[in-house]
Amino acid sequence: MKFLISFFTCLFLLNGLSAQNSDSVETDYLQVYLDGVGGYQEYIKTEITFVNYVRDRFEADLHVLITSQATGSGGTDFSLFYIGQLRFAGKIDTLHYIANSNNTEDETRAGLVQVLKMGLLPYVAKMPGNLPIEISYDNTNQILKQEDDKWNSWVYGIGGYLNANLNSNFTQYNVSGNLNANKVTDAWKLGFYGGANYNTSIFQLDDTTTYESFNNGTNLNAIIVKSINKHWSFGGEADYFTSTYSNYDANFEISPAIEYDVFPYSESTTKLFTFFYKIGPEYSIYTDTTIFEKERELLLRESLDISLSMKQKWGSIALGINGSNYFHDLSKNSAGFFTSLSWRITEGLSLESYFTLDFQNDQLNLPKGDLS
Fold it and tell me: What is the pLDDT of residue 7?
């Protein structure tokens, strides 16, 4: 019993020392809770040493929430939200740092630290005591000129995949490739995608029996969205799809669409509440006759997606519902629901959950016949 008491006493003391060593305990320093920077946390703590980093967000004078999203030119736009608490309650500031697509990771994190420092200084300046901070300015006479974007905000991508699995009684080949081009500005969002895949599996069941399975397909997609104002946008989407697995020799779909965001789009890095509706014709040419005795058909389809996502001091949450139906028979429909939650209880301890539920009654492409 004495051994157990001594053991737990030592363990408690070691934990206390570890907690003290992990974060600065200077009483005159600004208490900061750092949130949302992923793998940059340790680098930031190493580079910015004139504040205390606390593990409990409720003990912080300042909660720094950092979010990011891709820019149209392929870079990253970091939003830094300085949310005052305790002695700074009610004070909120926001800064932005845009990392160029040509930046190395070291250049990106160094630039982020520089902007983060500037945002911290107004709060540090109001702390009591003489803090070991010196502000300097590089007054070297330099003229910086922003280079013209020769790509005009377009971002291009190419990808491919090749795999072969050779066995004495089993052979498999997987080949796929894709091309894409995207452009995102304040007024427009343009995206084009093309891809193809070829998958073959050959099973040698015995000396005289061989079974071959093919799963091939192509996909072309184009999306054009125009922003009307800070809440509304409209556009359209076009799709071409083929798939041996899904029984499509060809599937064409053109869908005009409109979207409304309850919150201004400028706040999209922290909160979105969107209603997205699209309607349009769908023409299908089936590989085999379907269970509804169709070889090809032209139908009108609509869909509605409602989604909410928020990223706040306590974590993030996302949820949404969606539904679609064909007009020729409203019983041919589908619906779904999803939700995800990430709740940061304290540094190093988070609760995460994900749930999804789908109802499908619109698989008009199912082939007629018995299973092989």
Answer: 43
Encoded amino acid at 345, one letter: I
Low-confidence ranges of the chain (pLDDT < 50): 1-24, 141-146
Do the Cβ atoms of 52 and 29 come closer than 8 Å? yes
Cβ atoms within 10 Å, residue 372: 5
The whole-number pLDDT of residue 25 equals 53
pLDDT at 222: 95
Separation of alpha carbons 233 and 231, rounded Å: 7
pLDDT tens by residue, 78-127: 888 999 888 888 888 888 888 877 777 778 888 889 999 989 988 888 88
The length of the chain is: 372
Check the CA dihedral 109-110-114-117 and report its sign.
positive
Q: What is the DSSP string of 197-245?
A: EEEEEEEE-SSS-EEEEEEEEEEEEEEEEEE-SSSEEEEEEEEEEEETT
**Three-class DSSP category at 44:** helix
Contact of 326 with 300, CB cutoff 8 Å: yes
Q: Which residue bears the tokens 């300046």?
A: 125
pLDDT value of position 73:
62
What whole-number distance in Å separates Cα of residue 372 and Cα of residue 360? 23
* pLDDT for 22: 41
Considering just the CA atoms, what is the radius of gyration of the chain in Å? 28
Give CA–CA dist 225/248, Å, rounded: 28
Looking at residue 348, its pLDDT comes to 65
Mention every residue, 6+ apart, whose C-beta is less than 8 A from residue 221. 191, 192, 193, 194, 237, 238, 239, 240
Q: Please identify which residue in the block is written with the tokens 């193809």.
A: 196
Q: How far apart are CA 36 and CA 112, in angstroms?
A: 13
